[in-house]
Design goal:
By secondary structure, the chain is mainly alpha-helical. The two termini are 28 Å apart. It has helices at 10-29, 37-59, 65-68, 71-82, 93-103, 108-130, 135-143, 148-153, 156-169, 174-187, 192-203, 207-233, 240-247, 264-283, 289-307, 315-322, 325-335, 342-363. The longest helix has 27 residues, at 207-233.
């Protein structure tokens, strides 16, 4: 366990360390071509080093509920299992039984390290599959995303489930894809939302239609937001007692969501992915099937969140689309050449994307 770092500085140090990596990558992008052998080789070495360090830094963090949210709740449940408490039989039964099993063979610290492995390694495997030579950039886009830290240290089940989802999207065999999707939803049933988006996008691929749905969701939310919240309350995607807390104006989680009401700031953040996909798919006629699927899933899941945007804790729902935002933004640049000096553009995108997370999570 990493206990020599002041707990109050733990998250900020993560971002400051990544700032050095991002700045180095940006400076290198000004000097070398994206497909230059030296760049590919150095990014592979750096990527593997960062993979190991991030995994250990998140996985070996101290058990703390003040700075790591639900981590303390997980730890208390784990300790209860270790003392003989039966596994909680909710719809997330696989995760609960997994925790129960782990409590008999390892310490709680090792359990959180294993959770970090489940959260981070699938992202590495998926990006290596999608971008064999340029996986570093996609992997970095994921680990510097605004919600990455929170769902690796707080919303742990949700984070693992979405990583399994990304891994599933890169599987070529349908059986393997289904296994990872089922495993993900058994860890956290809110994954049913992106899975439903995946099913819809698999049978109807026209991004222009989903784009219209996304824009339509904005006035629908403005006019009838409470109605949509009431509807979602009955879907049972999250335990009822927890779900109700999402919509309370003064819930225990209010401090993690700085303000309520219609979140124009987060809508603008989401629009970065909406615009990127529109630009490449509609304007540039980029017809990569996997990218179109990721984009359509993002549009559907994000539109769902917009309907609930006023909820105090709606970032839990926003994450069900934001977890693929980094891929939606960077994907086209890593599989096709669209611009002269494309490496410089990739460097600027990575820098800007990181700075947005840095401002929101560290400065503000």
């Amino acid at each position: 366990m990493i206990d020599f770092i002041p707990i109050a500085l733990y998250e900020n140090l993560y971002y400051y360390a990544l700032a050095l990596v991002i700045m180095f990558s940006y400076l290198q992008s000004l000097q070398e071509a994206l497909d230059e052998e030296r760049n590919i080789r150095s990014k592979s070495v750096a990527g593997h080093l960062i993979l190991g360090l991030v995994l250990l830094y998140i996985g070996l963090r101290p058990v703390n509920g003040l700075y790591f949210g639900d981590m303390r709740t997980y730890a208390l449940t784990f300790e209860g299992y270790a003392q003989g408490m039966p596994a909680i039989q909710t719809k997330d039964f696989v995760f609960n039984n997994f925790m129960k099993f782990c409590s008999g063979i390892m310490t709680v610290e090792m359990f959180f390290l294993l959770c970090a492995i489940f959260y981070i390694v699938p992202l590495y495997v998926a990006t290596r599959k999608m971008f064999p030579n340029y996986w570093f950039y996609a992997f970095m886009m994921l680990i510097v995303s605004m919600s990455f830290w929170a769902f690796g240290t707080n919303g742990i089940r949700n984070g693992i489930a979405t990583s399994f989802f990304i891994l599933a999207m890169t599987r070529t065999k349908t059986a393997n894809m289904v296994i990872w999707l089922l495993l993900g939803v058994s860890f956290h049933k809110s994954l049913l939302i992106p899975i439903a988006a995946f099913v819809a996008s698999r049978y109807y691929t026209k991004s222009e239609t989903y784009l219209k749905i996304w824009f339509l969701a904005i006035p629908l939310s403005l006019v009838a937001g409470k109605t949509w919240e009431s509807f979602i309350m009955g879907l049972g995607l999250v335990e009822n007692d927890r779900l109700e807390g999402y919509f309370e104006e003064e819930s225990e989680f209010a401090q993690q969501f700085s303000s309520t009401g219609f979140r124009w700031d987060f809508l603008i953040y989401s629009f970065t992915g909406v615009f990127t996909g529109w630009y490449f798919i509609v304007k540039k006629k980029f017809q990569d099937p996997l990218y179109i699927r990721f984009y359509n899933i993002y549009l559907i899941a994000n539109a769902f969140w917009i309907l609930l945007i006023r909820a105090t804790f709606s970032n839990r729902f926003a994450y069900l689309s934001w977890f693929v935002l980094g891929i939606v933004v960077i994907y086209p640049f890593l599989v096709n050449k669209f611009f002269e000096g494309q490496h410089r553009i990739v460097g600027k995108i990575l820098l800007a994307y990181f700075m947005l997370s840095f401002i929101l999570n560290v400065i503000l």
